[in-house]
Predict the 3D structure of the following.
Amino acid sequence: MSRSTLPLLDSSLYPQVWQQQTFTSPQALLLSMLSATLSREVTIDASAFTKQLLADDVYQEWINTTVFGRYLHRNFTAFYQQTEDSFNTDMPALFRQELVRHAQYLPLGQVLFFAGDMPKSVRQTKTLTTTVNPATAIINAQNLAQKLTVNTSKLIINQITITGKQVLGFAIRHNKRTSERLRNEVLILDFQDLRLVNEQAIEDIKKSNIDDSILLRSYEMR
């Protein structure tokens, strides 16, 4: 079965203007957003970037080439996480097989974001839900940090750059009338290698609290 490669979304989205500054790459925009998050100068809002995405022709192509929405994604995730339903042991593999059949290759150089610690299972399952919206990743990281019982405000953000031609996935189509439209998710379904290439602690130089920092991890996926 021949597959097509999605067009590069970042080349269409950037340069991007945020807080009266122009950013030529998603990495630069994310760093600025993270610095603003630490200094608490700005409340991060995912809706403005979502509007830019929905107005972008390439993103419309991304979401209109898939028949899958958030409802199907929730069910796929539930099947993949189930461990006790022995009667339906084949369902995750069958479900995944059908999704892979409709997936496309992600473009080289595309940057995706993921909040929190990278699950150890990702390299085994080859499955990961990411977002193209840096603000969404930051908000997700903040929500995760609030749920932790340890007394720390450290956020973990991962940025993943596609460096191989065999990364399979598709954009998840969201209901525009609900808050889910701010997720701007991309489901990765298969890849050959995921490599951590850099880890950077972002701290507010005005504060001495070591826990008040953000850990930015950069990955390459092929």
Q: What stands out?
A: The mean pLDDT is 85. Strands lie at 16-18, 21-23, 104-105, 111-115, 128-131, 155-162, 168-171, 185-190, 194-203, 213-221. The first helix runs from residue 10 to 13. The longest strand covers residues 194-203.
